[in-house]
Amino acid sequence: MAKAIIKSSLKPGSRSKMADSRVLPRRNLQTARRSVRPPIALDALNDHLGYFIRRAQIWVFGDFIRTLKGIDVSPAQYSVLVVTGANNGLSQAELAATLGIERARLVRLLNRLQERGLVQRLPSSADGRRHALTLTAPGRTLLARAKALASRHEKRLSEKLGGERRKALLDALRDF
Amino acid sequence: MAKAIIKSSLKPGSRSKMADSRVLPRRNLQTARRSVRPPIALDALNDHLGYFIRRAQIWVFGDFIRTLKGIDVSPAQYSVLVVTGANNGLSQAELAATLGIERARLVRLLNRLQERGLVQRLPSSADGRRHALTLTAPGRTLLARAKALASRHEKRLSEKLGGERRKALLDALRDF
DNA sequence: TGACGATCGTTGTCAAGGTCAACAATATGC
DNA sequence: GCATATTGTTGACCTTGACAACGATCGTCA
To answer: Which of A6, A27, A47, A112 is least surrounded by Cβ atoms within 10 Å, i.e. has the fewest?
Structure first.
């Protein structure tokens, strides 16, 4: 039931019916059937890039997560594994900066990956504060599987959008 | 300090230096100066649309939030206000479905907006379960200000990307 | 008419992310 | 040597998202 009206100036009772009939002419005329649902206007949202970027992000991440859930690798974990694998001995601050995530968040991501035996935090000989991040052998193996699955996901994306449209998106978004 | 090694198979001490010198030849040769920082490869991430969508989303939302923080309107709140304002008498389930958010989350969003006196949950005369959502007069006023600020944000986006590139993005992302 | 299943708004809980402040250890610059 | 900056870490808080459950109401169909 719609019981919680919160503290508000709404006065239910006699006024409510009148207010509703003024406010909802469309629905009153259409018998409120589910099958005829009138189109809902997005109005100003149609001009906002951020709105569509968010929807796209939800779709893409959802498909990515579904595709890699068999090996239990999230998008964030995947990005950590890829960049660590391609740049041996990276420090955590460098990795966090290139991925655009907080150092504090990276610490927890790495904890999990290290517990699973995928990454190592070796002490840096040049700088006692740093860790030199490397993938373990199992880490490299898992990364290879992850890349294969991820490219399958990307292929699916290509089919959904069309190859040239996907490429245009990649180029346009690279500037952020 | 890099003290927490967690439970791991890492053995610090004699092995560490050797492992590091194998692993970090670049940094050893370059005297570890900040000014010469070597480029960090994104590797496979360069082919992943999701990675760039996420970065774009962070940038765009950040700019949007900064632009509207003066009137305390988040992106989610903005989308609720816009669609409610354009579709009088909408039910919460319909609104949640069109915005792609959970009914449960919308309840809390509306609570906040109703506490601020911006939206009303009128009882629906046709269906006792539903609420007919409407903007209050202050809600409409605030929405107008919000739209003005949001279009300023969008203009800034246009300058950053170039107008035609922004339009291409809008079209390409609309399919999600 | 009455019973049954579906829907609506709501609440609670849990996990994942982002943000921020603080800290000890270490490095750098003067 | 000393002040300052950086690194990794921890803790706290807040926002989202996801999911289950619930009472109230609707629709349907026997």
So the answer is: A6
Handedness of CA B3, B7, B8, B10 (dihedral sign): positive
Is A22 a member of any domain? no
Looking at the structure of chain B, the number of domains it has is 2
Q: Inter-chain contact B6–A160, Cβ cutoff 8 Å? A: no
Tell me if A125 and B169 make a contact (CB, 8 A cut-off).
no
Query: Is the CB of residue A114 less than 8 Å from the CB of residue A146?
Result: no
pTM: 0.82
pLDDT in tens, chain B (176 residues): 444 444 333 322 223 333 333 233 333 333 333 345 578 999 999 999 999 999 999 999 999 999 998 999 999 999 999 999 999 999 999 999 999 999 999 999 999 999 999 999 999 988 999 999 999 999 999 999 999 999 999 999 999 888 888 888 998 898 87
Question: Domain limits at B57?
Answer: 44-173
Which of A56, A86, A88 lies at the smallest CB-CB distance from B176? Answer: A56
Q: Residues with Cβ < 8 Å from A93, sequence gap 6 or more?
A: A103, A130
State how far the Cα of A41 lies from the Cα of B116, in Å rounded to an integer. Answer: 24
Closest C-alpha among B71, B98, B74 to residue B86: B98
Instruction: Write out chain A residues lying below 8 Å of B18, CB-based.
Output: none
